[in-house]
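batch job 7 of whatever, protein = YIP1 family protein
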Amino acid sequence: MGFYSPSLRGQVRMSMSFFDIVLRPQETMVEDVKHVNMQEANRTIGIYGGIIGLLFGIIFSVFSIIFGAVAAGMLQNIPVVGVIAGLGLLSILIMPILGAIFALVFTHVGMHIVHFLAKLLGGTGTFQNNYYLWSRLLWPAIAGNIIINIVIFILNIIPILGLVIGSLLSFFWYFYNIYLTTVVISVANNISRLRALVVLLLPGIIIVTLLASTALLILVNPSTVQGDQCDSKFGQFVITQSNISDKMSQFVLVNQTGQSVTFNSVEISGVSSAGKPFSANTNLSDKFNANETKTVTVSHPSLGVGTYTLLYKFNYDWGNLTGLTASGSCRGTN
C-alpha cells in the first residue's frame, strides 16, 4: 500500500494542477500569461477541432451507410453538408482536418475581436495573451463540464430532489463558465472584470441586434415607392417592375435562393389609406430555377384610387422542404 502512495499522491497533484485554472483561475492565469506559448495554444485548439470534426465525420458516415440514397436525397440541397455526407467513410478522414482548420480560424478571429474590444476599453494586453489563456482554459473547462453533467445525470435518478439539485448545479456551472471567461479577458488584457464582462457580452448583444434587425427586415421589409410601383425584397425573392392597376397586380419575381424551387401560390392582401381591405391569390405550380425571373399576374377586386399597403406571401417548396413561405410588405399607389 505504501509503495503506491507516492505515485497516487503524484497523480492527485497532477489532476489538481490540471484543474487549477478552473479552481483558482485568477492566480493560475496571472502566472500562465507570463509564459505564453503560441505553438502549444495552436496545438490545443487544433486537436480540439480535430476531435469535434472526427465525431461529425463518424456521424456523417453512419448516416450515409444506414440511410444511403435517402440520406443523399435529403442533404443534396444543403451546401457542403451534402457533399461531405456523400463521401461516406472518407468523411472520417476529411472532417478532422476541416474541424482543426475551422477551430483555428474561428478562434483566431474571435480572439482578435476580443482583443480589439478590450483595447477600446483601455486594455493593454496582446492577442497572444488572449489566445493562449483561452487555449489553457479549454480542456479543463470541457473536463469540468463532463464531470458536472455526469453528476447531474446521477442526481436525476433521485426523484424531485435530484432534479432540483441538478438544475441548481447546472445553473451554477453555466454562470461559473461566464466567470472563467471573464477572468481570461481580464488577465489577458489588464482590465477590470467588469470591463471584461462588457467585452464578453458586447459581441453577443451586437449579433442578437443584427439578427433581430435582419429578421425584421425579412418579415416586414417595408418599401415606399412612387406612383404605381411596389418593388421590394422578401427573403430570397425580389419583386421588380411591379404594376398595380384597378383590378390587377403584375410584377417580375426573381429567385435569389441559389436553388431551384417550386412555387405553389402567391397571395396578395392589403388595405388602402382609406381603410378599404382586399385580398387575392393565384396558383402557380411552376418550377423556378436559380436566378430565374418570372412575370406574375394576380387579378383582384377593384381597388379604387388610393395608397395601399400590400402584403405579399409566396408559398413554395425547396427540394424536400415543403410548405415554405416568404412574406413581406410594401406601399404602392393606384
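notes: The chain is about 55% helix and 20% strand.
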